[in-house]
């Protein structure tokens, strides 16, 4: 794709324009979700580009392949937001936008000169989504936080571990910046809801401010942890690979060193599993009759299942369990994901041509809307690829005026 000739947006959010003043993960993830569904996103990057361009394994001269997906479907403009002239440019861009998404520390936008009042004056009805560690108010408002902090204070980090009796190692990280992504997901949902309230038939036309905290976003995903403590005073503890309330439901070893997850929670499924194992007697064993007894005797049950799975290769087990209609899967690595026919068939794994990296595998668009699916219109662009286009097209600046801004260090 040419930097100067992006294809037209398609999807349910086509016609919505979003200004992103975000960096790292949460705000850019929010706007990527919106862009995937058709929104036009103008991303303001700092000089040198978004730090995510340098995260992970890199290609010399091109940066990190993650950026290809993380920044896709967005137009990139590089601007020094600390420069006094940046405020007037941001306000000018906001005039043509429906929403603004940012993830600076609370109050930082106002300290830049971008108060709610100025933004509203520039664009009445503007939706402003603030994403921060602890929220825009409260006792912890000004504390520094990243996704991992949100995961810890929201309760996820403690539970992501083996039971205390099994391991004294620190609680493990989920493996991705899940706290940031959950906050970005809630912000995208909030922007869509605010746009609906503003614009639907009989809508009030009013702008709204969204306050999304990483900590609260994680906490909201913690199922019955808090209600159980409130009612019973019980603290939920890590359960490792198992589900504490259902059995069998764990990861089991295979003959070729992989792991296979089996969910035999209900009585009919458990009976099918035991027949496949050649142990139909287990379904009638007094220790395992009904889920409650299986949970009580899960150590012995998992030992029996693990001894059986250890005699087969992972692929063979996966096929056998599928035929027997027992929920199961290999614990996928990136290699299995990339080759999986279900992901490929539904467009969830796609090859995208990127000028910087060649063919790059991207995750597809979620949610899947068959009648109006959105599109991966282009991969993450180079930093500042659309600076001149945006300044000229959105603000009507001449080439000479843009050159002067560049000379002053306002844009790059």
From TrEMBL:
<dbReference type="InterPro" id="IPR003673">
    <property type="entry name" value="CoA-Trfase_fam_III"/>
</dbReference>
<protein>
    <submittedName>
        <fullName>Succinyl-CoA--L-malate CoA-transferase beta subunit</fullName>
    </submittedName>
</protein>
<dbReference type="InterPro" id="IPR023606">
    <property type="entry name" value="CoA-Trfase_III_dom_1_sf"/>
</dbReference>
<dbReference type="InterPro" id="IPR044855">
    <property type="entry name" value="CoA-Trfase_III_dom3_sf"/>
</dbReference>
<dbReference type="InterPro" id="IPR050483">
    <property type="entry name" value="CoA-transferase_III_domain"/>
</dbReference>
<keyword id="KW-0808">Transferase</keyword>
<dbReference type="Pfam" id="PF02515">
    <property type="entry name" value="CoA_transf_3"/>
</dbReference>
């Amino acid at each position: 794709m040419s930097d100067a000739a992006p294809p037209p947006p398609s999807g349910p959010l086509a016609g919505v324009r979003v200004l992103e003043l975000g960096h790292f993960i949460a705000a850019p993830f929010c706007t990527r979700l919106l862009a995937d569904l058709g929104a036009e996103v103008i991303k303001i990057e700092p000089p040198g580009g978004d730090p995510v361009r340098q995260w992970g394994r890199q290609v010399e001269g091109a940066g990190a392949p993650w950026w290809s997906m993380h920044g896709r479907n967005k137009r990139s403009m590089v601007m020094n937001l600390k420069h006094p002239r940046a405020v007037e440019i941001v306000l000018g861009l906001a005039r043509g936008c429906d929403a603004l998404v940012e993830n600076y520390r609370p109050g930082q936008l106002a300290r830049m000169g971008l108060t709610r009042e100025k933004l509203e004056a520039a664009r009445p009805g503007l939706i402003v989504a603030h994403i921060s560690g602890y929220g825009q108010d409260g006792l912890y408002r000004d504390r520094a936080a990243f996704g991992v902090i949100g995961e810890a204070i929201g309760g996820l980090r403690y539970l992501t571990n083996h039971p205390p009796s099994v391991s004294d190692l620190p609680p493990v990280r989920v493996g991705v910046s899940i706290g940031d992504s959950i906050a970005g997901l809630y912000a995208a949902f909030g922007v869509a809801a605010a746009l609906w309230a503003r614009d639907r038939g009989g809508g009030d036309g009013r702008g709204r401010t969204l306050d999304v905290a990483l900590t609260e976003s994680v906490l909201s995903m913690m199922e019955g942890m808090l209600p159980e403590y409130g009612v019973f005073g019980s603290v939920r503890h890590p359960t490792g690979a198992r589900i504490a309330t259902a059995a069998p439901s764990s990861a089991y070893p295979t003959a070729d060193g992989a792991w296979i997850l089996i969910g035999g929670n209900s009585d009919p499924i458990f009976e099918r599993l035991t027949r496949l194992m050649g142990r139909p007697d287990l379904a009638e064993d007094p220790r395992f009759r009904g889920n409650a007894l299986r949970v009580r005797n899960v150590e012995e049950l998992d030992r029996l299942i693990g001894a059986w799975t250890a005699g087969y290769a992972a692929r063979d087990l996966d096929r056998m369990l599928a035929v027997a209609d027992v929920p199961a899967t290999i614990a996928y690595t990136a290699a299995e994901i990339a080759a999986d026919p279900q992901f490929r068939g539904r467009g969830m794994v796609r090859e995208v041509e990127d000028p910087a990296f060649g063919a790059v595998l991207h995750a597809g668009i979620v949610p899947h809307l068959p009648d109006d699916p959105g599109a991966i219109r282009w991969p993450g662009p180079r930093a500042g690829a659309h600076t001149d286009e945006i300044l000229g097209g959105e603000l009507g600046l001449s080439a000479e005026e843009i050159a002067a801004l560049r000379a002053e260090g306002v844009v790059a």
